[in-house]
Specification:
By secondary structure, this protein is an alpha/beta fold. 48% of the residues lie in helices and 10% in strands. Helix 2 runs parallel beside helix 5 and helix 9 packs across helix 12. Strand 7 and strand 8 form a beta hairpin. The radius of gyration is 21 Å and the shape is globular. The two termini are 39 Å apart. The strands form two sheets. The protein has a seven-stranded mixed beta sheet, sandwiched between helices. Strands 7-8 form a two-stranded antiparallel ribbon.
Length: 342
């Protein structure tokens, strides 16, 4: 779901993938996997499947999209969520209900033969299982791509790595990593290319967008602490929907008037089970780890071919071609970084 602060962010810089060649980017793994689950589908919304009914849309996205990033000279580091904070349980329950409702509407649309509606609801109907997560970790390991296990929220860990300078930016469709302190956020990294507009036979180009935290803060005349307060007012994954009657513009006015969280939250109606100060403190000081390695490793090509083709029924010809590209990418990226790329 993510924090809804898009109205504050006017200084997005459109990039080409070549603009970030030679850089390490920490991706929110679950955000990317859900993008793949939503987008890699058949016309009626049915995900890719093996002959045994195993869903492989995410496998496809992780393999082919990651290979493309490597081919462009980008080193992705996938950061996986750990234990959720206790006050996120409400958001998780809401997501489960939303998926159940979407699945019913998906089936109804299929029965009516409405493929456009079926595809729309199908994108929200399925879940990332533990088996899918483990398979994706295996694919990335065999590709030689670094993964990081966060102790808690993946976006918090990615932001921590960016603040330390171990990666150049975080990547996600959500803005949460800005609240966690990431100096740079890249959106659209895993969905770059042509995208069909909902309900229309129209396709648009989707390019990566760069958002810089300092620019957002400067343009709006606030600091990071006030940005966190705005996020809490309009709604985060820990207080879904935000405070009734307060949108982004009103929230900006309030945090400029009441600069301390204690002063702000004592003056607004709060109808959530979780204390707003607890959410605020979590964004400021989330659990993170320094136990990670961002090094690209040599791909295990034979094992990767077997895993994708024999175990998950991908096209051998296509997989072999991509593995060859991964091997070439590794040689270039491990041979001196950006200078060796050109």
């Amino acid at each position: 779901m993510g924090v809804k602060i898009g109205e504050l962010i006017e200084d997005k810089v459109e990039l080409e993938l070549s603009d970030i060649a030679g850089k390490k980017i920490a991706l929110d793994a679950f955000n990317a996997m859900y993008q793949f689950l939503a987008k890699v589908r058949q016309p009626d919304g049915t995900p890719l499947m093996t002959s045994k009914g195993e869903i492989t849309s995410v496998h496809s996205g992780i393999f082919y999209r990651t290979a493309n990033l490597l081919k462009e000279g980008i080193i992705p580091i996938y950061v996986f969520d750990g234990e959720k904070p206790s006050f996120k349980s409400r958001a998780i329950e809401e997501r489960v209900r939303a998926r159940e409702e979407a699945e019913l509407k998906w089936k109804e649309a299929l029965e009516l033969g409405d493929l456009e509606e079926a595809r729309k609801y199908a994108q929200a109907a399925l879940n990332i299982t533990e088996d899918i997560v483990e398979d994706c970790k295996t694919i990335l390991k065999l590709m030689g791509v670094p993964t990081v296990q966060a102790p808690s929220e993946g976006e918090a860990q990615a932001a921590h790595m960016a603040m330390k300078g171990d990666v150049w930016a975080t990547a996600s469709q959500d803005y949460d990593s800005l609240l966690f302190g990431a100096p740079r956020l890249i959106r659209n990294l895993t969905i770059t290319g042509k995208r069909k507009l909902p309900g229309k036979e129209v396709y648009v180009d989707v390019n990566p967008e760069l958002v810089e935290l300092e620019s957002v803060l400067k343009r709006n005349g606030i600091n990071r602490e006030q940005l966190i307060m705005i996020g809490i007012l309009v709604g985060t994954d820990y207080n879904l929907g935000g405070v009734k009657g307060i949108g982004v513009k009103r929230a900006l006015e309030l945090v400029k008037k009441y600069k301390r969280p204690e002063d702000l939250f004592s003056r607004i109606p709060w109808e959530f089970d979780v204390d707003p100060i607890s959410i605020y403190e979590f964004f400021l000081n989330p659990p993170t780890t320094d136990d990670y390695d961002t090094s690209l490793r040599r791909p295990m090509s034979d094992e990767l071919l077997k895993f994708m083709v024999e175990e998950h029924e991908f096209s051998e010809e296509r997989v072999r071609k991509v593995i060859n590209e991964i091997e070439e990418s590794y040689k270039l990226l491990s041979g001196g970084g950006l200078e060796s790329w050109f």
